[in-house]
Amino acid sequence: MKFVYFGYDFMLESVQRLLSEGHELIGVFSFECDNVFNFNVKTSELAERLDVPFTLNKPLSMDIGIFCEQGAEVFLSAGYPYKIPDIDEEQAYGINFHPSYLPMGRGIMPTPTILMNHPEASGVTLHKLSDVFDDGDILLQQKIPLNAQDDVETLSAKIAMAAPDLLSKAFRDLPELWADAKPQNQSKASIFPVPDETMRMLDWGRKVEEIKRTGRAFGRFGALARFDGRLWAVYNFNGWVEAHTYRPGDVVCVLSREVVVAVKDGFICIKDFQELPQQ
Fold first, then answer.
1. pTM to 2 decimals?
2. Are 110 and 42 in contact, with CB atoms under 8 Å apart?
3. What per-residue string of b and e applies to 69-93 under the rule 16 or more CB within 10 Å gives b?
């Protein structure tokens, strides 16, 4: 099948899998990436190597029509933040790969909320593109089990590892899957918000395990913390439960590279952190 990819490097192994199985990439739409936490360098390199168009521009209806004229059979979106214009089902399939078990966990970045509050939404879903983000009929989906040690990096890895098989099956059986697609149960639908600074902030008034869960949800992207009268990005920490008489938020120990802060039921040892400008 000829296909157009809307996305970035995170799903590139899935694109490579489709290419290895004889499918043909004929165009790529990506978006501005910081190339620190999200990347599109390899996606751009792949498009250049295959001599197919690569753009950071938002797609227009005209673009969809041009690719359909060139024989595009599938428009594949994965982690793409912009609305893709309507695709005539008589001409091509429009599908989206989403990193949650829909209809739970709609939204552009559901993984932190999944890790913090909703492990039941952990999974991957392939669905039809529709007028409403993440609302289309479901083609395929798979649960991804979580354990107490999972963080945003391990969950992201599990998602990326599940994707190639899911997309391979979809491309192989797409006409049948399309005909058998199931509407989402709207009564069970939930939208997880894009994480903001409030979600990222470590609350010293909470328990050790709750604080550690926030840290796992943001990993190397960084949680936020206030101590010593300043704002910090925190990339790595650990903690333990222990009775004490300090106030939550008190800095109780400063070592050569670590800082220990008192919390409700114990202590947090901050190991990798960086001061941020005051806001």
1. 0.93
2. no
3. eeebbbbbbbbbeeebbebeeeebb
